[in-house]
Design brief:
alpha/beta, D-Maltodextrin-Binding Protein, domain 2, six-stranded mixed sheet, 10 strands
């Protein structure tokens, strides 16, 4: 009997036990719902994070359920409204969620997340070349950011553009900012030539190259940003209220001991997860407030 089969057989029993031991404002529903900022197609995310839900359910003895959301903003709203009590956020969405929910905690992050980075990319036909410093002449080309709530696809790229040019992106490019909506949409638009250049998460770019989806000779890296903190798992304070003091710490330990590369692949964090804290993201929070992206 496989582990997957055992988990499938145990989940109904876990649900009954949890329902008998805990209560919820929704009439006794003990399920812990969680979400993640969208980064792939819906079917893939539901499958991958569904496996994460099975893992958490089996390890913690409480039923977990993955809830897919349409965009970055929806993930923050679901957390803010208490519709989900756990979420895999990007740096900016995490800052926004914690600002909206007093007591919310960043509890885990990828081993790579304290020193994340963005790739500025360009279509080979644009004539833009790789550079160790911010690329000259970028403003003479069409350019797209990712989601307007993305850390690696908007917040930090905007910061580096302002730092390098002394101008806002709108001033630098001479037009309103373009947003593709996601990292995957960004590289697709650049690779197809719909935009000359764009910026996205380095992890997404490298993953899609390995999968053979991005042709690095066509969709080229022209600049790599300095490092900054990014993604994290975040817990809602309602977890400890519902399941007792210390339950959030148990969730944290369960996430950081996750060793299955298939499960970690849901977050593109095959290297593993480590502890995280709100304090680590204070520089991002300060920057987001400075740029008017967090109230």
């Amino acid at each position: 009997m496989t582990n997957k089969t055992i988990r499938a057989l145990c989940l109904p029993l876990l649900a009954l036990l949890a329902a008998a031991c805990t209560s919820d404002v929704r009439g006794g529903d003990a399920t812990i719902r969680f979400t993640a900022i969208p980064g792939e197609n819906t079917t893939e995310m539901i499958e991958k994070f569904g496996a994460v839900a099975d893992y958490l359910s089996a390890e913690l003895g409480v039923p977990f359920e993955y809830v897919h959301v349409a965009d970055y903003g929806a993930s923050v709203e679901a957390f803010k409204n208490g519709d989900v009590h756990l979420s895999w956020f990007g740096g900016l969405t995490g800052v926004r969620a914690r600002a909206a929910v007093p007591g919310a905690r960043a509890i885990a992050q990828g081993k790579i997340d304290p020193k994340y980075k963005s790739y500025f990319i360009a279509n080979a036909d644009s004539g833009l070349e790789a550079s160790e410093s911010f690329p000259e002449g970028l403003n003479k080309h069409s350019f797209t950011f990712g989601s307007d709530s993305s850390t690696s696809g908007r917040l930090m790229p905007e910061y580096f553009i302002r730092k390098a040019t002394g101008k806002t992106p709108a001033e630098y490019f001479g037009s309103e900012m373009n947003f593709s909506g996601s990292h995957d949409q960004t590289w697709q638009l650049v690779q197809s030539g719909s935009f000359d250049a764009g910026v996205l998460s380095y992890k997404t770019y490298e993953t899609r190259v390995k999968e053979g989806k991005i042709d690095p000779e066509v969709c080229r890296i022209i600049w790599i940003t300095p490092p900054y903190p990014d993604y994290s798992w975040n817990s809602h304070p309602a977890l400890d209220i519902r399941y007792g003091k210390g339950f959030t710490d148990r969730v944290q330990k369960t996430l950081t001991k996750m060793g299955d590369p298939v499960l970690l692949g849901a977050m593109m964090r095959e290297e593993g997860l480590i502890d995280a804290s709100n304090e680590e993201f204070k520089p991002l929070e300060d920057l987001a407030r400075q740029l008017g992206l967090v109230r």
